[in-house]
Amino acid sequence: MDRSRLSTLLERERDSYVRRNPRSAAAYAKAEHLFGRVPMTWMNKQAAGFPLYLESARGSHVVDLDGHDYVDLCLGDTGAMAGHSPTAVTEAVTRRLASLGGATAMMPTEDAEWVGAELTRRFGLPKWSFSLTATDANRWAIRLARAVTGRPKVLVNSFCYHGSVDESLIIVGEDGEGVSRPGNVGAPCDVTLTSRVAEFNDADGLARQLAHGDVAAVLMEPALTNIGIVLPEPGYLDAVRSLTRRHGTLLINDETHTFSAGPGGCTGAWGLAPDIVTIGKAMGGGVPVGAYGLSAALAAAILDRDDLDLVDMGGVGGTLAGNALSLAATRATLEHVLTDSAFAGMTALATRFTDAVTTVIEAHDLPWSINQLGARAEYRFARPAPRDGTSSARASDGELEDYLHLYLANRGVLLTPFHNMALMSPATTAADVDHHTEVFTTAVAELLA
Ligand SMILES: Cc1ncc(COP(=O)(O)O)c(C=O)c1O
Fold first, then answer.
1. Which helix (H) or strand (E) holds 328?
2. What is the DSSP secondary structure assignment for residue 18, as one 8-state letter?
3. Which of 251, 311, 348, 398 has a 20 to 30 A CA-CA distance from 216?
4. How far is residue 98's CA from residue 80's CA, in Å, rounded to a whole number?
């Protein structure tokens, strides 16, 4: 690829973005009282100096402060996989908040048991508990795993993301052992004291690490989704399960993003048998919620331990966790929006997206690839597709990503600002996908002209 052409085109797209979005630019310039000018510092991950501000959103589209309409393939990086403000969720939230009243009251509602039963149907785990974020679901699952195994460490895959979980900020270093992930903010201690790490798709590396006998739990996504999509090779997930069983280590499947694989995520779609499932984001239809599900044996072993304070200040819990509003929204999402039949349609659209991108990649013989995981697809600048986190990290190309993101945004399509992920909601249409195809095709053609 001609890098100087890429730089010139990127500058052109940046200029165009700045000219198109004066209101977003002004709102950002005025935001003197926000740390980094944004409500959360990651919102500074954008390609042209300031983020687009949200005006409104419905279904698969968002409208920004300057009035531009976008096909939203970012969908809140999965938090809005149900589509924006689906009717069933809006009605359930309105009923709870306005009609009945009581968003949070430190009292359970009957929605919780309905949601628990539905999550059991989908993921197989029989006992569920709720948080407000997937990060917290992971933190609490880790605590429970440590308590029940009496072991200090957690093992994750290199270049994983499980939220802001201290133990997960570790990557495989040059000598094959774990080192702190660069940029780790204020680590409480050397991460190798709390964690071990293995590459995804490397059962031998996992076996070597588990042989130390100090790993309470493997925390993993059944397919990596936060460093591009890295799919498991045949036999790898079976090897993970048998190795974890052999070494007395619990297996936590984090399905927060891999929920895209189907109504029960990869666990349901691929018949996996983890000891714990963690999840969050999409299941609340946009309202904050997270959850963890436990096997019967694990739930019983924890509840049998009267030395563990699960009721007061033992480190597992949050006052707003399990609140009435979150669970009303989650029930509505699972009952009426992210249904089994909705997943079939979302997956078909992601296949349409994947096929179209593949056609462009092949037409130009680009050294790129695209992976699909149910309703989610992502292109990556490597071919064949990377098989682990480290090689996928090496395939990043910030300038190229910025160009594609801006080219698409300037023509009405949003990808997730982190890498090149596109997600389908039940409200996404074939026309939405085809809009991306059209713009992506010209973005590539201009780059190679
Ligand atoms: C796999 C995975 N787990 C956990 C999280 C954290 O979710 P939250 O931001 O809701 O805490 C994320 C966020 O992207 C994720 O991708």
1. helix 324-332
2. H
3. 311
4. 22
The answer for residues whose C-beta is within 8 angstroms of residue 448's C-beta and 6 or more apart is: 1, 364
Q: Cβ(145)–Cβ(295) under 8 Å?
A: no
CB-ligand 1 contact for 96 (6 Å cutoff): no
- Is the pLDDT at 238 greater than 90? The verdict is yes
Query: Best mutation site among 78, 139, 257, 287 for ligand 1, i.e. most ligand atoms within 8 A of its Cβ?
Result: 257
Distance from Cα 151 to the centre of ligand 1, integer Å: 24
Q: What pLDDT score does 441 carry?
A: 98
Give pLDDT tens digits for 341-366: 999 999 999 999 999 999 999 999 99
Q: How many CA atoms lie within 13 A of 134 on its CB side?
A: 25
Order of all β-strands in the sheet with 61-64: 54-58, 61-64, 69-72, 413-414
Report angle CA 224, 227, 231 to the nearest 5 degrees: 35
Distance of CA 356 to the CA centre of its chain: 24
Closest ligand 1 atom to Cα of 136: 11
Torsions phi, psi for 192 (to 5 deg): -75, -10
Dump the DSSP string for 162-173: -SS-GGG-EEE-
Residue type, 243: L
Contact (Cβ atoms closer than 8 angstroms) between residue 382 and residue 376 = no
Phi and psi based region of residue 115 (left: phi greater than 0; alpha: psi -120 to 50; beta: remaining) = alpha
Q: How far is residue 31 from each of residues 38, 50, 136, measured CA to CA in Å?
A: 7, 11, 29
Sign of CA dihedral 376, 382, 388, 390: negative
Average pLDDT for 142-146: 98
Which of 278, 281, 376 is the pocket-test mutation for ligand 1 (most atoms within 8 Å of CB)? 281
Radius of gyration of the chain (CA): 22
Distances (CA, A) of 138 to 133, 186, 192, 251, 276: 9, 19, 18, 12, 10
> What is this structure's pTM?
0.98
Q: By the 8 A CB rule, do 434 and 93 touch? A: no
Phi/psi at 146 (nearest 5 deg)?
Answer: -65, -45
- Measured between alpha carbons, how far apart are the two ends of the chain, in Å? 10
| CA 154, chain centre distance (Å) | 20
CA separation (Å) from 60 to 258, 322, 383, 407? 20, 28, 30, 19
- Beta bridge partners, 171, equal 179
User: What's the CA gap between 383 and 369, in Å, rounded?
Assistant: 5
> What pLDDT was estimated at residue 47?
81
